[in-house]
Amino acid sequence: MCILGGIDNVIAFLSKDVGLWQFHFVRSLMAVAMLLVVGSIAGWVMRPKRFWWVIGRNMFLSVAMFIYFGCLGFFPIAQVAAGLFTAPIFVMIITAVWTRQPIGPIRIAAAVVGFVGTMLVLRPEVGAFGWPNLVPVLAGISYAFGNVVTRRWCEGESAFALLWSYMAIMGILGGIVLLYLMLNPTGLDGYLTRGWVWPTGNSWFWLVMQAVFSLIGIGMIMQAYLIGEVTYVTIFEYAMLISAGLTAYLAFGQVIPPLGLLGLAIIVLTGAVIALRTAKAEG
After folding, report:
1. Are 182 and 196 in contact (CB under 8 A)?
2. Strands (DSSP E) along the chain, which ranges?
3. How far is the C-alpha of 134 from the C-alpha of 136, rounded, in Å?
4. 3-class DSSP state for residue 139?
5. What phi and psi values does residue 238 have, to the nearest 5 degrees?
6. Which of 27, 48, 98, 151 could tie 54 with a disulfide, CB 3.0–4.6 Å?
7. Cβ-proximal residues to 257 (8 Å cutoff; 6+ apart), any chain
8. What is the pLDDT of residues 22-65, one digit of tens each?
9. Contact at 8 Å (CB) between 167 and 46?
10. Considering only CA atoms, which of 84, 63, 73, 62 is closest in space to residue 5?
11. Total number of domains constituting the chain
């Protein structure tokens, strides 16, 4: 999560030159190629055991990342990450519904307080509060589904099988939208509506860096969810909030206001409470 929090800041550079869909298409091509070559040499298990379950799980995470990276073109990374990290709240809800276990007053209270903390982060520096501010939360909902089903649908799968298939799904979906934009140009040169453009040398560099370090970070996360209890692993994901904010400050001078810092602290605290209480309830 520390790796991802740092490398995701490069979207601020790429969004000026490369569109969202081309970013995912090109990055995934490079990432899948690297994984298949290295995996074949190293003898990694690359074939999913439950193909359709893996595809279903990857679709949830792909939607989350399309929303997440789409928002990075418009919002500071700390705000987008805050929306993504509403996921523990939704992990709690989804798990409770799935297992038919009561949530309990402490976790309900923590969820409410955590959502308030998210609002504190999403609102500062954006201007008047409106529905667009809540879009990053949609990434958190989809990410929560992906995290829950990773353990329930994909236990026993190789982390490498999950990783390359996830990147492939994102590349395919990104390529489909990119092809549509090329065949049906909107006339708008925006981050979300831009068709294929030939990246500059600087953009190629950051695309390669994104592909390499994303593989490392995401691979570690997937392995963690395969071998660890989802409620405990989730707590460590908050390291991304720290690394993302610190990198944004060092690279772009983005300063999180006091209310935003308070919100981030609330998110980390309530997320930990939810995860630990969920683990205790399931135990």
Report:
1. yes
2. none
3. 6
4. helix
5. -65, -10
6. 48
7. 124, 125
8. 999 999 999 899 888 888 888 888 889 999 999 999 999 999 99
9. no
10. 84
11. 1
Q: How far apart are alpha carbons 211 and 209 in whole angstroms?
A: 5
State pLDDT tens for residues 121-137.
776 444 445 567 778 88
Q: Is the pTM of this model over 0.90?
A: no
Q: Which residue carries 């390291």 as its tokens?
A: 239
Chain center to CA of 217: 11
Q: Indicate the burial class of 55 (C-beta count within 10 angstroms; 0-12, 13-18, 19 or more).
A: middle
Q: pLDDT band at 240, cuts 50/70/90?
A: confident
- By CB neighbour count within 10 A (0-12 exposed, 13-18 middle, 19+ buried), where does 183 fall? exposed
- Residue 172: CB partners within 8 Å, gap ≥ 6? 28
Q: Which two tokens stand for residue 179?
A: 């092809």
Half-sphere exposure of 187 (CA within 13 A, CB side): 0
Q: Which residue from 7, 19, 9, 23 is spatially nearest to 79, judged by alpha carbons?
A: 9
